[in-house]
Input
Amino acid sequence: MISSIIIQFDRQPHEFQPLETITGTFRLVDVDLEEVSQIEFSTLWFTEGKGDEDLGIVFFTELDRMNGLLRKMPERAVNEEDAAGRMTVQAQPEGNYVLPNQEEADGRSFRFSVKLPASPLSYLGKILKIHWCVRVRLFRKNGREVKSERMFQVGKVPQVQVDLN
Amino acid sequence: MKERSWLLAKKRGDHRTDSRLVGLIAEFSFAGFCILAGVVGLLWLWSFYVLPELRIHERYEKTICELVDCRVSPRTVLGNRPILDEDKDDFRFNGDGEAFNRTEFGNKGNRTSLNEEESGFSFAEDEMNAPDGKNQSDGEGNRTGKERERLSSGKDSVHRSVFGVKNLTNLGDMYYLPEMQLKYHVDGVERTNWTSSFGSITRSSRFSTEESAKEFLELFCIGKKYYCLFNPEAPDEVVIMRGWQLENFFALIIPISLFFIGVGIGIHALTVPRLGGSKEKTAVLTAGRRVLDGENVAQWEFPNLPRIDEITDSPGVRLAYRLPMIDSPAWALCILVILTLAWNAGCLVFLTIAACSFLLTFADWMMLAYLLPFLCVGIWLLVFTFTRLRNATAVGPTLVEIESFPILPGKPVSLFLSQGGVKPLQWLNVVLVCEEEAVFTHGTNTRRERQRIYQRLIFGEEAIEVAPERAFEVMFPLEIPHGAMHSFISPRNQIYWRIIIQGKLVHYPMFERSFPLVVYPDISVEEEKK
Amino acid sequence: MYEENPFCTRRIKPGAIPFYFPEGISLQTLIGTLRENAWCGQIIGPHGSGKSTLLAALLPEIAESGRRIVHLELQDGVRQLPLSDADFLEMNENTQLAIDGYEQLSYWTRRRIKSKSAKQGFGVIILGHEPLEYPDLYQTSRELAVAKLIVSRLLENTIVRIPESVIEEHFELYSGNLREMLFSLYDVYEEAYRTLKGRR
Output
């Protein structure tokens, strides 16, 4: 049984603009929740190329049993009852967050929302590239780790074509 | 193999408690200790060293005094005085407890001065005062009966010696205090008082041996006049004038440093609670700002862009801002000139010596042979420096000003160029470039690579007339291509835009001067779309 | 979908690429040699021949055998060890000191390390370009076959193919310095990738 983490964005394709809020979900697949000690979620940019890797974290959060987010559901913004008398949620919480996904109550799915900064933009240069991604790390009690990341684009800077006029 | 006790050994590997709580407690304890030591030390230094120093300079008044007498008083650490022989009002004695003549002092000293360079000693807390704070002196330098009574009460029973008596035992912490008797006037009233005023405020004025105390007093001459400071509220308090004891202030660095070390450790303990965390967590915490849940990084305007305040702080004459030159040759030229002059001066000295030896004594061919390579280098330096100076001064100052800052892709701005000089230019170009730079370090190996990805000639002209009183000036538009990447800076990678001014004078090599631009991402377009 | 350039620093830095041994030699063999020499040894070889890569492969194996690793990478021009007397006191027969850039250290510093190692029993592995005062552990060399193997492994899951002739050409150009060769192949890959993407 190979554990994995599946990350999905609400928007397809994964192209965003600076100062925009990216939203999506990540799901733990084939993971024994009892064995999970902590989950780290980060949104970051990193460089790739001929230089040492630099990275910049714009949002980082940890989920563990201490803050109960692996099990506990958040308080709902109660608005109205549906025909069966169940409360429905009207509004999503604001700001950056990672919360259990209310639409899937098995405790394995989480929603995230992160507001992007104004810079840097994604960039495909000659000896330097800048990538954006959402990265999730799951730490087990036995020390092993499962990692997953999903890249996305910020801005619309075209791939560099060297232009020496 | 040397082993340390478990208490002293660093807790690593198998010694680790594996408890974050214990680790935090230990860190905070250490931080607390540093903070406490810093605060206590600061208060102590302030009270005993800095405040008295300030007080002396602020409250005390200056006058001229005459040095009437000198003596050395033995004391213990507790400040107790030896028992005095009431028949003697002469407190001097030597290491064997023998009395000595007061005239030993004053005769040998040859420093007389009314200026403040006679420094090196501070005022002391009034050692003459009784525990109740009152001055023991009656203004004539004579001890009051009360003091004599106290001193001879036998309380200092350990001090069996008396001035003039040989056997002197002490508590083990004996020191010697040099004292001076000063005569001065306050509001027309003559006052004569003893003072011990040297070194730092209290303890360091003491000397461990009598000889050193005597040596100190030999700097002064009895009968000579000196500046002194007296307390206008208690005129019998007087000290010899000296300059600021700056070491009293510098000593504050120690407790202040301790305090901030403690604060730093405390903050570190709070912000880096787990060692060996993931790369992302470590990057967040060690970058000095904690990205907490819900905290919006977007509030930090434009992260990872170069700072623009260096440019926006420099107003232009024709346009809003003046761009600074990158790598101005001025400093390099300055150093080159100094080096050349120094080198050739040295060579000249030795050449002179060699020439003199040739003319006056014998032909020192060996010296000349040693000197020859240095002379060659000196001549080369002269030629090299002269050429560089000539090239630099032939090309006058290059000024570039810009209409607005920062620059956005697709939005043209005006640029103003002024090129001075003494000779006409064959040609002058203004080039807009963008380059990527990446640094890779591993061990001793550091690679820095640059790649120019964009280059465009935005202005060019030939046969330009330039005169000392009339620089070449031109205004033209500058536009970063629409959709181009903004400037970017991170520890090991960067993208930068520049304006490069290239030109050539007749009979001179080409010159090139670079000016930085900072290009921001154009987010206004995206916000409009929303 | 974007493909990472396999010759970027993240993929070619020491530790990212495995060290390819000739037949008959393995990490275990080297560990055995180290044991015989009281955990002391030197890895010698020219620039860019894989010394740091071999050390990066060796250290986890040494750590597995229960030794505490102290790994120092000295920057260019550093002549003193960034270790205090207290740090040295911590070292014992279960400590492995590894120094990349050992040749830069002053004669007295090197003497000091050797004498402390003898006295306190910790092991020392050094990297250098010429034999020094430690027993030989391994001598790296610049091999075209190894260069080709490394490049083929890096290109395994990519759409780009770099002809062997190009590899040979770059190998010759940099006199067998693998590090420089791989950096130059970054540009080759980049051009080839863009051309292929452009066609598609």
Notes: The first helix of chain B runs from residue 20 to 59. Chain B has four domains: 14-59+252-300, 64-242, 330-394, 395-529.
